[in-house]
Amino acid sequence: MRLRARLAYGLLLVLLVAACGDEPSPGRAGGGPAPAASGTLPAESPTAVTPRPPRAVPTRRPLRPLPAALPAGLHRTSGVRAVALTFDDGPDPVWTPKILDRLRAERVTATFCVVGVQVRRHPELVRRIVREGHQLCNHSWHHDTDLGRRPVAEIRADLVRTDRAIRAAVPRAKVPFYRQPGGRWTPELVAVAKQLGMRSLHWNVDPRDWGKPPAATIAARVRGAVRPGSVVLLHDGGGDRAATLAACPALITDLKRRYGVTRLR
């Protein structure tokens, strides 16, 4: 009897211990999630995560505003009664050779405002331009219409880079002019060009051939706006220049008859 009593008492203790082990712990009150299984780490509490500081985003200096009027110091006439023809945005492998062929057939010379990236791609065309007696003009590295609004150091670097590309193609070539894409001039740009030995070349006749109007429209616009000593803006690069090419024969014939055609001085 005494042995049975002891066994019964021991069994009762075991049951009591087991019952106590199933009680929820203070950290699990209210039926919270069970602890992580053995061998795995519990997830960190969200309050323990330290947020990373925001990454600094580099900011560019704001561009300076364009002046209300064109700045002083722009070269806008041929300097004589005859008219000067200028061609922008080349050299282009399709249209520049055809424009050069037409000018040679008409026995006139022009000024080619060349873009640096195009010079690097087609140096042989720059050599032909010079070889056939035409003038060269720096037209920025990649036709940046906002170049004049940028810091002076960026303006200078762009013009110098383009000038070096031209001279790599034709080491002894003269580059007496710079023309700002879009005609978006600033006094700072004019000053930098002057410091580098280039005059800032603008225009006073723009037939807007960049919009690809018909050849007859291009010729009519030039005839209506041209005056003695005019500088005419045309394009041999930047897209399909078939209409400009087609306009050249009648246009050049008319200009030669009325005023003559000359290379810029």
UniProtKB/TrEMBL annotation:
CDD domains (UniProt xref): CE4_NodB_like_6s_7s (cd10917)
The opening ranks of the lineage are:
Bacteria, Bacillati, Actinomycetota, Actinomycetes, Micromonosporales
Record bears the keyword Signal: yes
Q: Where is the signal peptide?
A: 1-21
Q: What is this protein called?
A: Polysaccharide deacetylase family protein
Please provide, alphabetically and separated by semicolons, the GO molecular function terms listed in this UniProt record. hydrolase activity, acting on carbon-nitrogen (but not peptide) bonds; metal ion binding
Q: Where is the composition biased (Low complexity)?
A: 34-50
Keywords attached to this Swiss-Prot or TrEMBL record, sorted alphabetically, are: Hydrolase, Metal-binding, Signal
